[in-house]
Write a structure and sequence with these properties.
The protein is α/β, with parallel strands linked by helices. The protein is 36% helix and 14% strand. It is built from 13 helices and 12 strands. It has a 7-stranded parallel beta sheet, sandwiched between helices. Strands 2-1-3-4-5 form a 5-stranded parallel beta sheet. Helix 5 crosses helix 7. The protein starts with a strand and ends with a helix. The structure holds (2R)-2,3-dihydroxypropanoic acid (DGY). (2R)-2,3-dihydroxypropanoic acid binds next to loops.
């Protein structure tokens, strides 16, 4: 008998085929996330669950799935899962690190460049029929080359962004609670205290996990420290930024611009105050959204799931101690 699993959204085909070859899988085929009651009613006898960052997997839900052995999250971030509850129940949780690093760093740079050079505003001007002539003062932006980039969180994606910034001739400073001496030497990036990074950077880009410590890491006090010309980029998690403080900072000219791939909440309602401003770009959480990367993430999630079902250590465990304990 194949192990039963529930998948909360259709994944790219190669991953669906791989999962179906090993499992008796049920999949939610809606475009929007399955309602909680739907997940609950489908997991009572499953051994495996493939979840997305839009699914809140908490202790209560886990208790509805007494046979659950493995949760394979189709994302590198796992703030949607109560890790303590999973570990307590001996459920292995795995994620999809690495394969989306370069794609996410590409998109971070796309946002940074778009904000610096006002690409989205320019497009709106053209579409609105307001492009009358070439003009010395039209849509002046900021130079990226030679500017100081402050990276908050020098993990895999932070490092990949630093490599790109190096190619653009930027001065790179970073803050991370764990100092990365080797990367400092390899890439010529400089460790800086958090407040100093905020006050020295022309661009600040966020690459931390969302934890209780990083929730609203950037708020009113931090905007006070930033340059008035600063451009803020966030491709990590929305709640790392205090959105209303950001709104006030952008509206009042405390900082110049923000380019966000992630927001709090998601989706950002169309009547959110941030969307009344011209100096903000908001993308719908698509930094990892390339055909190749989403397929790699899905295959990785499939392999993590299958390993967990076999009682083996998945390649990308978040709480490996659960597997060791089961043995
Ligand atoms: C992740 O994986 O955590 C991203 O936010 C989506 O790819």
């Amino acid at each position: 008998m194949k192990p039963r699993v529930y998948i909360t959204r259709m994944l790219p085909k190669p991953a669906m085929e791989r999962i179906n070859s090993f499992c008796d899988a049920k999949t939610w085929d809606g475009e929007l996330p399955p309602p909680r009651e739907v997940i609950t009613s489908n997991i009572s006898d499953v051994e495996g669950l493939v979840s997305l960052l839009t699914d809140k997997i908490d202790a209560d839900l886990m208790d509805k799935a007494p046979k659950l052995k493995v949760i394979s999250n189709y994302a590198v971030g796992f703030d949607n899962i109560d890790m303590e509850a999973a570990t307590k129940r001996g459920i292995i949780v795995a994620n999809t690190p690495g394969v989306l690093t370069e794609t996410t760093a590409d998109f971070t740079f796309a946002l940074l460049m778009s904000a610096a050079r006002r690409v989205v505003e320019g497009d709106k001007v053209v579409r609105a029929g307001k492009w009358k002539t070439w003009g010395p003062m039209i849509l002046l932006g900021q130079d990226v080359h030679g500017a100081t980039l402050g990276i908050v969180g020098l993990g895999r994606i932070g490092v990949a962004v630093a490599r790109r910034a190096k190619g653009f001739g930027m001065r790179i400073i970073y803050y991370d609670p764990n100092r990365q001496k080797q990367t400092e030497e390899e890439l010529g990036v400089q460790y800086t205290e958090f407040d100093k990074l905020l006050s020295e950077s022309d661009f600040v880009t966020l690459h931390t996990n969302l934890t209780p410590e990083t929730h609203h890491l950037i708020g009113a006090r931090q905007f006070e420290l930033m340059k008035k010309t600063c451009i803020l980029v966030n491709t990590s998690r929305g709640p790392i930024l205090d959105n209303m403080a950001l709104y006030h900072a952008l509206r009042d000219g405390r900082i110049a611009y923000a380019a966000l791939d992630v927001t709090e909440p998601e989706p950002l309602p169309p009547d959110h105050p941030l969307l009344t401003l011209d100096n903000v770009i908001v993308a719908p959480h698509i930094a990892s959204a390339s055909v190749a990367t989403r397929t790699k993430m899905a295959l990785m999630a499939a392999e993590n799931l299958i390993a967990g079902l076999k009682g083996e250590m998945p390649a990308n465990p978040i709480n490996p101690e659960t597997v060791k304990r089961a043995r």
